[in-house]
Design a protein that fits this description.
The complex is a heterodimer of chains A (114) and B (114). Chain A is mainly β and 114 residues long. Chain A contains no helices and 11 strands. In chain B, strands 2, 5, 6, 10, 11 and 12 form a 6-stranded mixed β-sheet that branches. Classes of the chains: A mainly beta (114), B mainly beta (114).
Chain lengths: 114, 114
């Protein structure tokens, strides 16, 4: 069964450092989501792509976060500089399209900022 | 925009006990409703869904019925197992914003004791 891949699974970084996460969606899925899940909370959307275009980044802290999906396939989420409050699980999900299609989640990247 | 409120945990049950996790929603129109499950250290998995009023979603012994009149989608299982220990999230699409990203409840942690 096809799965969403994410790497790394765990990342420890010091504050003010740069960090990057990678996501490879299920083949053929046009829509890709990055969610942030703070411990004890539900996931919240950071950015949504339709193919290579951003359709929603309203909750992305753009002064330090960036996301790209250059060829409309895999995606990278970057944080620079990292802050203590960025410690969370970063989840990637993909779906065939937006609305009415099931989202499939990857295993996530657990980020700890020290 | 759409929102969801779910029963806060943690919930601790003995094996074979009956489970109910309450979820209520506020939404424009009649969106699909979802329950996701997150096992320790993993990403989210779709547990079940319902796409219209009075639909019953079911999977792995879990059930939830889409109740339009009470705007609820409570999760139930007649006899829980230790392997059901996980965090459960109620969710619905955020049509009001970015065309399909999910709005999640805060999650309910279930622990099942043998």
């Amino acid at each position: 069964e096809a799965e969403v891949a994410q790497s790394p699974r765990y990342k420890i970084t010091e504050k003010s450092q740069a960090v990057a996460f990678w996501c490879d969606p299920i083949s053929g899925h046009a829509t890709l989501y990055w969610y942030r899940q703070i411990l004890g909370q539900g996931p919240e959307l950071l950015v949504q792509f339709q193919d290579e275009s951003v359709v929603d980044d309203s909750q992305l802290p753009k002064d330090r976060f960036s996301a790209e999906r250059l060829k409309g396939v895999d995606s990278t989420l970057k944080i620079q500089p990292a802050e203590l409050g960025d410690s969370a699980m970063y989840l990637c999900a993909s779906s065939l399209g937006a609305i009415y299609y099931e989202q499939y989640f990857g295993p996530g990247t657990r980020l700890t900022v020290t | 925009g759409n929102s969801v409120t779910q029963m806060e945990g943690p919930v601790t049950l003995s094996e074979e006990a009956f489970l109910t996790i309450n979820c209520t929603y506020t939404a424009t129109g009649y969106p699909s409703l979802f329950w996701y499950v997150q096992y320790p250290g993993e990403g989210l998995q779709l547990l079940l869904k319902a796409t219209k009023a009075d639909d019953k979603g079911s999977n792995k012994g879990f059930e939830a019925t889409y109740r339009k009149e009470t705007t609820s989608f409570h999760l139930e299982k007649g006899s829980v197992q230790v392997s059901d220990s996980a965090v459960y999230f109620c969710a619905l699409p955020n049509y009001g914003g970015s065309q399909g990203n999910l709005i999640f409840g805060k999650g309910t942690k279930l622990s099942v004791k043998p």
